[in-house]
Amino acid sequence: MIPKATQQVSPKVTAAVILIVLVVIQVAWWRGLVMKPKSTGGPMGGGGGPHLSGPPTLIGRKDVQVDTFAGAVEPGDADGPGHQARFDTPVGLAVDSQGSLYVADSRNNRIRRITPQGFRP
User: Fold this and answer.
1) How far apart are the first and last CA of the chain?
2) What are the C-alpha distances in Å from 102 to residues 49, 52, 79, 96, 105?
3) Nearest Cα to 36, choosing from 22, 21, 49, 53?
């Protein structure tokens, strides 16, 4: 019998254990942070996915309120007030002294301005 101090764990067993732990962590992360609850087919029933009649319902922290000033659910390039505006991958925000919000609309290669009164190109 080999003394315990000189026994070695197989590299294959070590690799398998590490892989299993990483998969479990990844599954927990996706289920807890990324995946949204399954849709029930909306208020009309009949399946076919959720009905997008307004801003999406998101899950998250209850002590934080997020409001949409401008932009629709689907990406695009359109000027307009509120949800009529469309952005494509906004990546940066800035506010000036008059309260206007500037949005770096990266895929449209534009800086968009939203004034306190509404959207302005």
Assistant:
1) 80
2) 34, 27, 13, 8, 9
3) 49
The two structure tokens encoding residue 19: 């892989």
Q: What is the pLDDT of residues 61-92, one digit of tens each?
A: 778 777 777 787 788 888 888 778 888 888 88
For 39-75, give one letter per residue: b (16+ CB within 10 A) or e.
eeeeeeeeeeeeeeeeeeeeeeeeeeeeeeebbbeee
Nearest to 105 by CA among 120, 89, 93: 89
Question: Which structure tokens are listed for 83?
Answer: 């949800």
Q: Contact at 8 Å (CB) between 88 and 105?
A: yes
pLDDT digits 0-9 by tens, 16-59? 999 999 998 888 877 766 655 555 555 544 444 455 556 666 66
pTM score, whole prediction:
0.44
- Phi and psi angles of residue 19, each rounded to the nearest 5 degrees, phi first: -65, -45
Tell me the torsion sign for CA atoms 33, 92, 84, 82.
Answer: positive
